[in-house]
Amino acid sequence: MARVVVIGGGYGGMASAARLAKLGHGVTLLEAADELGGALRPVEQDGFTWDGGPATTLLPAVMRDLFRKSGRPLERELELEPLEVIREHRFEDRTRLLMPASRAGQIAAFDDLGKGFGRQWTDFVDGFAEDWEVLRQHYFEVPWTPGALPPEVAARLDSRETLAKRIRRSFRDKRLRMVAGFPLEAEGHNPRDVPAWAGLVHYLEQRFGVWTFPGGMHQLAGLMAARLATRKVEVLTATTVTDVMLRDGRVAAVAFSGPDGDSQIGTEYVVSAVDPRRLPVTERYADKTLPAMPPQIFHLGLEEAPTLPAPEIVLHGDPYMVVRAAGNAWTVHVRGRLLEDVTIALARHRLDVRQQVVTRVDLGPRELVGQWGGSPHGMLWMGRNTVHQRLGPTTPVPGLYAAGAHATPGAGLPFVGLSAALVAQAITTDTGGGDLRA
């Protein structure tokens, strides 16, 4: 078995470390912050607790596979629960769409919005079924190289069709176009720059559901930290990696600055689960990419919060706002021109909680990136070539692998979890352990 250093203690780094340690590798994880978790860390103030990052996940099988293959099954720790209603969309003309998770429920909901809209929506979603099956089998679940792509994968990755073009072709109604573009726009992307196949998130929501932990997804950070301890992963926090050292062109050591000063760790393999711009060894491979910046985030602690029809309310307009409600703890994501206080902007959408605010935490995009050490939304889509410009799971540097949001073609816990599985598979194969399927 090999010596592995994992850089970054967010979900991608922790998942990679746990998998590799269970396979028998000696693993050390280095995290710049004082605690593990990255964007999963909760925000706490005045007795309120909010999810700092994701509040839900897709593809629950990915998370269950991680826990099963790193020790105890997830169900023995905490139970994931499906959402019956995913979100509500509220449009500028005052119409609304309450979106269930099920296919039948979505047909009915869209038909309530307009005659025949249910069929239009399901036709759009069904159009991603083949994309998912091809990419799952040959791309999401197996390491790949640009020069050796199966023809069916290459046809999708190199297609000039954008998500915006597919949406325009599928819908004439402006509101349906807004719903179709929502997941990518919420992560900071412009659908004109996103390849059409990336819209398969709608197919994943409908087919596999949307899931959460009762009490908040931030609990996952503690579960993963405990799993690392069980697997005897050496964890060094408050430790900033300065570079990866090479010998004869291959990974040899990791240089870092910690509480005790500057030092190095000799290693055979490195897994980078941070923005590649943060490391000199990978910076030049990411010079044609940009991060997808997070939105402005406002955490509101409320007294007697109104009951909402869905855990997530999408308020279409400028600014574009997403309200996530967990009891009296509300989180508001804002993109666009916010020219007034966020509570006033909410009141204009008939969500007036100005008199109920007990406490609040306001965070800007740059502040969030500083706290998290990078963007949990990964790379910004800037056309079809973006997918070839990312690193991961393998990189051009022998012995260096990449996981996390910047090493996947999609943000969120399921894609990051898949990236960790690919890294474990690639390193195990390289060390002579065989082809370990994710």
Q: How are the elements arranged and paired?
A:
Elements (H helix, E strand, L loop, with lengths): L2 E5 L3 H12 L3 E5 L12 E3 L2 E3 L9 H9 L12 E2 L2 E6 L5 E5 L2 H11 L3 H10 L2 H12 L10 H7 L5 H8 L3 H13 L14 H8 L2 E2 L6 H12 L3 E3 L3 E8 L2 E9 L2 E6 L2 E4 L7 H4 L12 E7 L9 E4 L4 E7 L2 E7 L6 H7 L8 E7 L1 H8 L13 H4 L10 E3 L10 H18 L8
Parallel strand pairs: 1-2, 1-13, 2-9, 6-15, 13-19
Antiparallel strand pairs: 3-4, 5-8, 6-7, 10-11, 11-12, 14-17, 14-18, 15-16, 16-17
Helix pairs in contact: 1-10, 1-15, 2-15, 3-4
Describe the overall structure:
The chain has about 450 residues and is an alpha/beta fold. The chain contains 15 helices and 19 strands. It has helices at about 10-20, 60-70, 105-115, 115-125, 130-140, 150-155, 165-170, 175-185, 200-210, 220-230, 280-285, 340-350, 365-370, 385-390, 415-430, and strands at about 5, 25-30, 45, 50, 80, 85-90, 95-100, 210, 235, 240-245, 250-260, 260-265, 270, 295-300, 310-315, 320-325, 330-335, 355-365, 400. It has a seven-stranded mixed β-sheet with strand order 7-6-15-16-17-14-18. A hairpin with a 2-residue loop joins strand 16 and strand 17 (about 330-335). The longest helix is centred in the last third of the chain and has 18 residues, at about 415-430. The model has no long low-confidence stretch (mean pLDDT about 95).
